[in-house]
Write a structure and sequence with these properties.
heterodimer, A: alpha+beta, Aldehyde Oxidoreductase, domain 4, six-stranded mixed β-sheet, 20 helices, 28% helix, disordered N terminus, B: 159 residues, alpha+beta, Ubiquitin-like (UB roll), 2 domains, five-stranded mixed β-sheet, 35% helix, binds FE2/S2 (inorganic) cluster, OxRdtase_Mopterin-bd_su_IorB (chain A), Isoquinoline 1-oxidoreductase, beta subunit (chain A), oxidoreductase activity (chain A)
């Protein structure tokens, strides 16, 4: 099978005479300069699809997300102000991934304005954008790269025109730099020109984008634009906002997952508690509003509620495992010759939580005829539609403000907090600031579904002739707008894909086996929609890749080759091979390691980029025997070398941070973090139950290498660090212990290291001994 | 309603609130001081870490009634004021290393870092790997590596 590459340089495929950097933009009417561009600009039409390569190689999730934007084109606008700053409301959501910074960099670049003069905020829900206001699939920079630059270039052009009039010089003789226009007759600042450059009417202009070889900002490492706010405590999240009358509000939830309240037996008693103002019984629980969240917690704990059991009452991990095993489709028959050898992998990945530090939260002010919502939302239009529907209001009577989120990891594709807040505000007739308790966010919040990933490969001599992977999962919920987007785009999907369900489509568009392994198939089967799931950071890829790379190591053993050399020889893609070679070289692949420790190496290809990870893992008693209070030590990753090629790194510094975060996720997925379902509810109710990577698990040495630009267009970054890291740790564990793991995380079946918090009341008491625990 | 008095970021504050309410909510919900974040409410995640009389503490686990009128509470908002600068050296180190991602845990991380440096200084030693390993603050964005680097830099710059 031959690899099919996308052209490396988009300009190289332009028909002769067509200028690939020339675009149409707009100057819009206004009192100061407003420049605009179509958000659907610059999306490369996807390549035609031959039959042999896997779909994701030719047309991946990002093509779908970008294509979905095309028919619903709309304008994004950059405004110039008299203080010399430019502002832009990004129709995406920022949860720490750094898109406000990278977008500000694109504007600063094309507008020739210092970075600190560019202000990027988050746009309210703009229903006219339809599918084009969804933050997911690491698609933000891929889809906004061209339109943002075009709008900035339009602004620059209009400023130069205005300066020519003001200074009496020809445009050709003017130079714009650092927010100042210089000409033979004098200078004018952008602030001076903001009004003069304004247009009374809308007009269309053609602009030419900067040649990437002249980039001064893009490609340089920049600190986050909101870093100072973050370190001084000024950065505000939903629960930090002060909205008139929006008092703290919390919900008392059922002792079984998704159970429903029948009635509150002691309403008067709860209402009489200090600070409490309102109580309301809703389908998802009993809400209480009070002067402080502390008093909400006390009230939730005081509630006596009759509950109706949730749909998985009585079920435990093993029941779900049995269900998954039953749903597994038989692997297709493989060529069977006397000389062939079969290599098999079968791994089970338990439920994992995508709970962020900032729990599900939202402010809602619902009145008779309108509603206003503030929340961190990655699909604000879907949120707006659904909230309008539930409240019985026209969609345009629901204002949805997108607030910065404290982490997402897929969680904020949904709007559970916002929807609940709207319902509570309606029921109480008052504004509310609703916040989920950590215990609920961990136990009831969405997570990554339990799944199995089976791989079978056939080796003849030294050649892999077939590689098949069958992934079986509890249903992943995509009912947050991505579903509608796929429906809307289905007609334009490559042959056959349009007929698949949402989940299968996502799977087919994200997964590929980048090795030359003969006949390759990857399939997905999903079952059971009773759990609260969603696409956790990098969706299927970490699990699929871990199972795949463990198999690659096994094949290498069978053919008696070094795992690195074997991968290198079989990779079909040059960029993936380059990152693999990079980590092997920088991370000293093959160096002698003491018994009980090992290196592991793995690759991943997705989001129009490639990554590779080399880890060293210590499984000796010195690490596993560590006594950590209320925590899990276990094997420790002692060194990580990670290389990533995203095509064009807009902000290498931000990218490095993203990769470091992905590495921490990968370590947790392999070694420590999972949810235990027991008797209809998850056990984990706190960060000392759910063991995401902590400082005592952090590798002492982490090196991230950002590869120089390869394609000239940016790929996705928000999730790219996870899959290769998880897979590399899994492979290192197998090599260090001599046992290829059959489930993840590897500690899931150990006795739980914490005492399980009660389910009634659903939230733990607030401690009082804090002054005795002073550091 | 009983009045609760304590010192906050250099000023004396008096709040009308039940003495049982935890300090975190007095700060956030009543005084609008939102630098200390909620991440668990049970002294686990350390997102609310602040200082009382210069030592690290978690206001989600302290009743406001248990604070004395002369107890000095410092939140991230008041940290720079303790050194009479725009930024405390630890905040500067955080900027230099570009530590924050979403930033939600970072006020707590910085306050915990300053408390940790002061603690090892009291023990007349310098920060070691084991001290860094002992930090319990969660960062779900996984900024741990840069946190470690920033603490070492910030410690060097702390008088
Ligand atoms: S909120 Fe105080 S320690 Fe988590
Ligand atoms: S920076 Fe997001 S939780 Fe730490």
């Amino acid at each position: 099978m031959s690899a099919v590459h996308r052209p490396l340089d988009p300009e190289a495929v332009a028909p002769p005479g067509v200028d690939r950097r020339s675009f149409v933009g707009y100057v819009l009417g206004g009192t100061t300069l407003v420049a605009a561009a179509d958000l659907a600009l610059g999306a490369e039409p996807a390549a035609a699809v031959p039959t042999v390569p896997q779909p994701a190689e030719l047309y991946d999730l990002n093509d779908l997300l970008t294509d979905a934007a095309r028919p619903t084109a709309n304008l994004i606008r950059i405004e110039l102000h008299e203080d010399g700053t430019a502002s832009f409301a990004l129709p995406r959501s920022e949860n720490g991934q750094g898109v406000t910074t990278s977008t500000a960099m694109l504007i600063a670049e094309e507008l020739d304005l210092p970075l600190d003069k560019v202000r990027v905020t988050l746009a309210d829900a703009r229903p006219e954008l339809l599918f084009n206001q969804l933050t997911g699939g690491s698609n933000t920079t891929i889809s906004t790269y061209t339109p943002v630059r075009v709008a900035a270039a339009v602004a620059r052009g209009a400023l130069l025109d205005a300066a020519a009039v003001l200074l009496g010089d020809e445009v050709a003789k003017l130079v714009a730099k650092g927010g100042i226009v210089q000409g033979p007759s004098g200078t004018a600042s952008y602030g001076d020109l903001a009004r003069a450059a304004a247009s009374r009417t809308d007009r269309t202009v053609r602009v030419r984008l900067k040649d990437p070889s002249r980039f001064r900002v893009v490609g340089t490492g920049q600190g986050r634009v909101d870093a100072r706010d973050a370190v001084t405590g000024r950065k505000t999240f939903a629960t930090d906002l002060q909205v008139d009358g929006a008092l703290p509000t919390m919900v008392c939830r059922a002792p079984t997952l998704n159970g429903e309240p029948r009635r509150l037996r002691n309403e008067a008693e709860v209402l009489a508690l200090p600070g409490v103002t309102d109580v309301a019984v809703l389908p998802f629980g009993v809400a209480v509003r009070a002067e402080t969240f502390g008093q909400c917690i006390d009230a939730v704990r005081a509630m006596k509620v009759d509950w109706r059991d949730g749909p998985v009452a009585g079920m435990s991990d093993d029941d779900v495992v049995r269900e998954l095993r039953r749903a597994q489709l038989p692997l297709p028959a493989l060529p069977n010759t006397p000389l062939s050898r079969t290599v098999e992998t079968d791994v089970l990945c338990y439920f994992r939580s995508n709970s962020a530090m900032d729990t599900n939260s939202a402010i809602a002010d619902v009145r008779e005829d309108r509603a206003e919502i503030w929340s961190a939302l990655k699909s604000p239009i879907a949120a707006q539609q659904r909230i309008a529907e539930v409240l019985g209001l026209p969609q345009d009577r629901v204002d949805v403000h997108v607030v910065q989120g404290g982490g997402s990891f897929g969680r904020r594709l949904f709007f559970d907090g916002a929807l609940e807040a709207a319902q509570v505000s309606r029921a109480m007739g008052k504004p509310v600031k609703l916040m989920w308790h950590r215990a609920d966010d961990a136990r009831v919040g969405r997570g990554h579904p339990m799944c199995t990933s089976r791989v079978r490969a056939v080796v003849v001599g030294k050649k892999v002739v077939a590689f098949q992977q069958s992934h079986t999962s509890i249903e992943t919920d995509y009912r947050h707008g991505l579903g509608e987007l796929i429906t809307a785009t289905a007609a334009s999907l490559p042959t056959g894909l349009g007929n698949l369900g949402f989940a299968e489509t996502i799977f087919a568009l994200t997964q590929e086996v980048p090795y030359d392994f003969g006949v390759v198939t990857q399939t997905l089967t999903e079952t059971d929609d009773r759990f609260n799931t969603g696409s956790m950071r990098n969706i299927y890829s970490p699990d699929v890749r871990a199972a795949g790379e463990l198999t690659v190591d096994k094949i290498a053993t069978v053919v008696k080759e070094d795992p690195y050399e074997f991968r290198r020889r079989h990779l079909r893609d040059e960029r993936t091979r380059a990152v693999l070679e990079k980590v092997a070289e920088v991370g000293d692949w093959g160096r002698a390691m003491p018994a009980g420790t090992a290196q592991g190496i793995a690759i991943h290809k997705e989001y129009k980029g490639a990554s590779a990870c080399l880890v060293e893992l210590d499984c000796r008693d010195v690490q596993t025997g560590r006594d950590i209070r209320d925590g899990v030590g276990g094997p420790r990753v002692t060194r990580v070398t990670f290389a990533v090629d995203v095509g064009l790194p807009v902000n290498p510094r931000g990218l490095e941070a993203q990769m470091q975060g992905g590495i921490m996720d990968g370590i947790a997925l392999a070694l420590t973090s999972s949810m235990h379902l027991r008797d209809g509810h998850f056990l984990e109710a706190s960060w000392d139950n759910y063991f995401y990577t902590r400082q005592w698990n952090v590798p002492p040495e982490v090196e991230v290498i950002v590869m120089p630009p390869t394609t000239g267009v940016p790929g996705g970054a928000g999730e790219a660090g996870v899959a290769a890291s998880f897979a590399a740790v899994a492979c290192a564990y197998a090599r260090a212990t001599g046992r290829s793991p059959s489930y993840f995380p590897v500690n899931h079946r150990d006795p739980v290291e914490f005492s399980v918090k009660p389910y009634v009341p659903p939230v733990p008491p607030s401690p009082v001994n804090g002054l005795k625990k002073i550091v | 309603m009983p009045k609760q008095t304590f010192r906050l970021n250099g000023r004396t504050v008096t709040v009308d609130v039940h003495p049982d309410v935890r300090v975190l909510w007095v700060l956030r919900d009543l005084l609008g001081v939102t630098g200390p974040k909620y991440g668990c409410g049970i002294n686990v995640c350390k997102a609310c870490t602040s200082h009382v009389n210069g030592r690290g503490f978690n206001p989600c686990a302290v009743r406001v009634g248990d604070l004395a009128a002369d107890d000095e509470v410092t939140t991230i908002e008041g940290l720079a004021g303790t050194v009479d600068e725009d930024l405390h050296p630890m905040q500067q180190a955080w900027l230099d290393r570009d530590v924050a991602q979403c930033g939600y845990c970072q006020p707590g991380q910085i306050m915990a870092a300053v408390a940790l440096v002061r603690k090892v200084r009291r023990e007349q030693r310098e920060i070691e790997d084991a001290d860094l390993d002992s930090i319990r603050n969660i960062c779900r964005c996984g900024t741990y590596v840069r946190i470690r680097e920033a603490i070492e830099q910030g410690a060097r710059a702390m008088a």
